[in-house]
Amino acid sequence: MQSLERGLAVIRAFDSERRSLTLSDVARETGLSRASARRFLHTLVELGYVATDGREFTLRPQLLELGYAYLSSLTLPDIAAPHLEELSQKVSESSSVAVLDGTDIVYVARVATHRIMSASIRVGTRFPAYATSMGRAILAHAEPGVLDAYLASAVQSSPPSSPPSSLPLSPPSKVGSTAGSKVGPSAASKTPSGMLVPLTSRTITDPRDLRAALDLVREQGWALVDQELEEGLRSVAAPLRDGTGRVVAAVNVSAPVRRGEIATLVQHLLPPLLKAAAAIEADLARMR
Description:
Strand content: 15-25%
Number of helices: 10
Low-confidence stretches: 158-189
Distance between the termini: 39 Å
Shape: globular
Number of strands: 9
Structural class: alpha+beta
Order of helices and strands: HEHHEEHHEEEHHHHEEEH
Radius of gyration: 20 Å
Helix content: 40-55%
C-alpha cells in the first residue's frame, strides 16, 4: 500500500503549472529520496503513464485510462463540455459543472477563460458545498432528510475536507491544483460548536441561515454566492436535472468582483447560464 501511495504522489506532483519535471523536482515535491523517485518514475515510464527525454518527465495521455471508467459511466462531462464552451465564450468568464460528493462539490467539467482564484481549478477539484453556488444549487433540491444529514456532517467536519491533488481527468474538450485554500486547524478551533467553518468573513456559518439561503435558491431557481468561498469572487449557479427530474449536478459561471455590482453581474450572467443549463438538461434527458 505504501508503494501505491508513493506512486500516486509522484503522479500528483505534475499539474497544469508543472507539466514537465526533473527527477530532482519530483523528489522535492513528493518528499521522496532521489533513488525512490527515480524508481517510481521509471516504473511509470515502463507502464506508459509517463514519458521522458532523459532529463525531464511528463505525463502521457494513457494516464486518463485510470479515471475513464468513472467519467464514461457518468457521461455528464462529455454532455456538458460543448455547452460550457459556448457559455464561456458568450459571457467571457469561466464556467463549470460539479456534482455533490459527501460534504464537497467535485468539478467534473470546466472551461476556464482565466484564473479567478488563488488556487487553480480543474476537473477533480473539491470545495465545501455550503460555501459554493453549485453546492447550494444542488442542496436546495435535496430531500429534507438528506439536507439534515449533510448539515450534520458538514458541521462535524471541522475543518471541511480539503482533498489531495487530483488527476486532470478531462472530457475531450478544454476543461479547466486542486482544491482551494485549506482551512487549517486554527480556523476550525475558532468556529463555535454547531456552526460551519468560515472560509471568508462573508461565509454563512449558521445552519439556519444556510437553510434560509437554500429556500431562496429553490424559490428562484438559481444560486448566487458573493465572496463566501474566496474574497473577490462571485459565482452564479443553476441546478441540472436528469431525465427523471432529479437534480444531479449544477452548472455555474464565476466572475471577479471588479466586474461590477451584483445586480449588473446577475443581469449579464444569469440568462446565458439558465439557457446552458436547459440545453444540458435536454441532452441528459435524451440519454435515458
